[in-house]
């Protein structure tokens, strides 16, 4: 007897992990179980909506699909309302006000060391123009300062934030959750969508240093460039990392 099989959609796949969607279930396959442990632990602690964990059988974690649609996508105009972006800012503030998770994030010195290494690689290999790298390394300096740790998502891309109209229905992918800089989350949420920064900050509800946000945009784009290329992504696509870097020139 034939059994109905729902369509399997590859959401993301690279050498480190893969996420598949089968009907209303997401299957996350990750060889690094410590990363999955961190994700499960974080989801149990956060005060904002997250996907329901259906089951776990290493190396697979099964999550229920979140309702509605992502806030947007990098490289594409967001159709979400200003109120939805503000709601995302408010959700991030709720997260940042929560008790700290046990997992420590990277230190300023570690990030600065990685940034220097990546900038050297980008220039030495002719991947990006020297003036582009130099200028964005200068902008990134604003982010390299002491901060008071808060509970951060750690990879708050707009594709990880789901909305229904003006309401947040949930936030995905907590594998990088840790103690870290609050402005890093705000920067990743608005990366490539600078036009929505004011809405996010309004929803966040407190003054933020916009130079630090811009610093994190440059820093994240420089750090991610080699990884993206080596894992089959195109940082030169319209609205993506190269455009983010060029916007600081």
Automatic annotation (TrEMBL):
Gene3D superfamilies, A to Z: 3.90.1200.10
Matching InterPro entries: AGP_Transferase (IPR051678), Aminoglycoside_PTrfase (IPR002575), Kinase-like_dom_sf (IPR011009)
Keyword Transferase recorded: yes
Domain Aminoglycoside phosphotransferase: start-end pairs: 30-206
Source superkingdom: Bacteria
UniProt keyword annotations, A-Z: Transferase
Keyword presence, GTP-binding: no
Molecular function GO terms recorded: transferase activity
PANTHER family, per database record: AMINOGLYCOSIDE PHOSPHOTRANSFERASE DOMAIN-CONTAINING PROTEIN-RELATED (PTHR21310:SF40), AMINOGLYCOSIDE PHOSPHOTRANSFERASE-RELATED-RELATED (PTHR21310)
Name under which the protein is recorded: Phosphotransferase family enzyme
């Amino acid at each position: 007897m034939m059994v109905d099989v729902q369509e399997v959609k590859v959401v993301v796949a690279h050498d480190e992990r893969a996420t598949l969607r089968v009907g209303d279930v997401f299957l996350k396959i990750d060889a690094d179980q410590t990363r999955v442990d961190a994700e499960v632990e974080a989801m149990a602690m956060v005060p904002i909506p997250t996907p329901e964990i259906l089951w776990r059988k290493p190396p697979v974690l099964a999550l229920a699909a979140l309702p509605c649609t992502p806030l947007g996508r990098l490289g594409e105009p967001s159709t979400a309302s200003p109120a939805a972006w503000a709601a995302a800012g408010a959700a991030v503030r709720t997260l940042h006000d929560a008790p700290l998770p046990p997992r420590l994030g990277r230190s300023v010195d570690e990030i600065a060391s990685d940034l220097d290494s990546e900038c050297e690689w980008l220039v030495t290999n002719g991947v990006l123009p020297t003036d582009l790298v130099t200028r964005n390394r200068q902008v990134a300096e604003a982010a390299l300062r002491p901060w008071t740790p808060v509970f951060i998502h750690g990879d708050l891309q707009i594709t990880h934030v789901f909305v229904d109209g003006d309401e947040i229905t949930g936030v995905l992918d907590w594998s990088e959750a840790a103690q870290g800089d609050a402005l890093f989350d705000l920067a990743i949420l608005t990366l490539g969508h600078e036009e929505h920064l004011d809405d996010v900050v309004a929803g966040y509800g407190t003054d933020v240093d916009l130079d630090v946000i811009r610093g994190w945009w440059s820093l994240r784009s420089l750090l991610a460039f080699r990884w993206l290329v080596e894992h089959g992504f195109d940082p030169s696509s319209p609205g993506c990392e190269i455009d983010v870097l060029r916007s600081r020139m």
